[in-house]
Design a protein that fits this description.
It contains 14 helices and 16 strands. The chain is of the alpha+beta class.
């Protein structure tokens, strides 16, 4: 067991949480219950109720985040009342830049040299074999502590990491009743494509490219757009309360930590350029404005989750190929699901160790220690009353995590949760239209009598190929999913 003393930090000055009540509240809570992923009715609306990337922060006339006060030429006002009046929720939405956020919370950028010994201690923690622990501390042992908790997953299995994320989120004590109940999860995945909860994979992903490369396709339980993961990008999940939800809280603190290392020789690859946060909460190059980290959100049961994908040294060519669809394909899929918003992207060029260090430092500065008695666990670096748990053994995982991992791999979740859509094909050889709900073909409109046999079948070339004759079979299976072998994509 390794124990490290309290890391020095710049306390946030007079930080208050912003409470709000908005017309979006009816969409925010999932039904409480067990670990199984929630059932949902088919989507009939044109927006994604779980995509909060564009959710505005509403203001009243005294709100210091007012668009009239938070401008480059007018500094933010002093500390004022941030409570919300019922009449204020329909007023003009506003956004807050990284610079405004740091100015408000007394977080000026620092040009002073960093604490090299602190980085070395953190690096040693990452390298230490957890098998040397004195006690068998597992995720279940510590998941419900009320003080801040940081978890570093050394697993690279995409579905396992998403399952760990969901378990930590579900087990985190109510942040409203426990003011210090906050979480940070860090992990990276082997190559995969991850779609938002309410997205249509057939409109987002090049299935042929994914099949040839054997790249798994996953559906997460939060909103937002489609992202490609690989070992060159690091993922963070910041968990807080619903009342204090902010698109820029963690990313602004993270940018502040990362920017201090630009141009420094610290023994690890340093970031190549300065970062800022755009109005969607994405981290971007402050000069080129190319995206370095996209964001997705979940708000439910009094909690909020913000996860991002930090491009450190990713294969951007592969990322582009997996998400590149022909115009013909895009036009053939008609639905009301959430579309991804394409953006130019760029690698930060930063090392894994240095990124994790800056993420931990950002989390600790948002939630500084203040004398609460330490809770000492094996396999933890205890820093004040904040704890870091490193996961790299399956035995440390509760059975609920493995159950979630299995459910995330099923056809019913990955494909069956796709919002209702239509496949429309009208070429010289064949003309037909299929309606698909919950992954099943429910209606077919075509002059070809053989199409009637498709009703009730899964929208899968593997299933369709058994009931159609050639050449119709070859034509339909290609237009459905490019003859995808779903087992190769990790979908059972």
């Amino acid at each position: 067991m390794i124990r490290i003393g309290t890391l020095s930090s710049r306390y946030l000055g007079y930080c208050r949480r912003l409470y709000s009540h908005t017309p979006f509240d009816e969409y925010l809570d999932f039904t409480p219950g067990g670990m199984a992923l929630e059932e949902e009715q088919p989507v009939t609306v044109t927006h994604d109720p779980f995509d909060f990337s564009n959710l505005p922060i509403f203001k009243d006339k005294n709100d210091v985040f007012s668009s009239s006060s938070a401008t480059p030429n007018r500094p933010l006002l002093g500390d004022t009342n941030l409570s919300m009046s019922p009449e204020s929720v329909m007023q003009e939405p506003i956004t807050m830049t990284t610079e405004d956020f740091m100015r408000k919370f007394n977080m000026p950028r620092s040009d002073q040299s960093f604490d090299k010994k602190k980085l070395e201690r953190f690096s040693l923690f990452l390298r230490t074999d957890t098998q040397a622990r004195q006690h068998n501390t597992s995720l279940q042992d510590i998941a419900r502590i009320t003080s801040p908790l940081m978890v570093v997953s050394e697993f690279n299995n995409p579905r396992l990491n998403l399952a760990i994320e969901k378990y930590i989120y579900d087990q985190m004590p109510d942040p409203l009743a426990n003011a210090r109940s906050r979480r940070l999860l860090l992990y990276k995945n082997t190559p995969c494509v991850v779609i938002g909860k309410n997205q249509n994979p057939f409109r987002e992903i090049n299935f042929r490219e994914a099949t040839i490369r054997g790249i798994p396709i996953l559906r997460r339980y939060s909103g937002g757009g489609t992202v490609v993961h690989d070992l060159g990008n690091f993922n963070f999940s910041y968990m807080s309360s619903r009342q204090s939800f902010s698109r820029v809280e963690f990313t602004s603190a993270l940018n502040n930590e990362i920017n201090q290392f630009v141009g420094l020789d610290v023994g690890y690859d340093a970031p190549k350029f300065l970062l800022t946060t755009n109005d969607r909460g994405d981290i971007v190059n402050s000069s080129s404005l190319k995206k370095v980290s996209g964001s997705a959100y979940q708000i439910s049961r009094g909690k909020s989750l913000h996860h991002g994908t930090m491009l450190l040294n990713s294969d951007l060519e592969r990322l582009s190929a997996l998400l590149k669809l022909t115009e013909e394909r895009k036009a053939s899929i008609q639905d009301k699901s959430t579309d991804s918003i394409p953006s130019p992207v760029e690698n930060l060029g930063m090392s894994d160790v240095l990124f994790q260090f800056t993420a931990v430092e950002a989390f600790k500065k948002l939630h500084p220690t203040d004398g609460i008695e330490d809770m000492v666990y094996d396999n933890l670096v205890v820093q004040g009353d904040s704890h870091i748990l490193k996961l790299n053994e399956v035995n440390d995982l509760p059975k609920e995590v493995l159950e979630i991992q299995h459910e995330l791999s099923t056809w019913e979740w990955t494909i069956g949760k796709t919002p209702k859509f239509q496949l429309i094909v009208n070429d010289e050889e064949f003309q037909y239209q299929m309606t698909v709900e919950k992954g099943l073909i429910t209606e077919v409109d075509s002059a070809e009598p053989n199409f009637k046999a498709l009703i009730g079948l899964p929208f899968s070339s593997e299933k369709i190929s058994h009931v159609l004759p050639d050449p119709l079979k070859s034509h339909v299976t290609w237009h459905v999913d490019s003859n995808t072998n779903y087992a190769q994509l990790g979908i059972s």
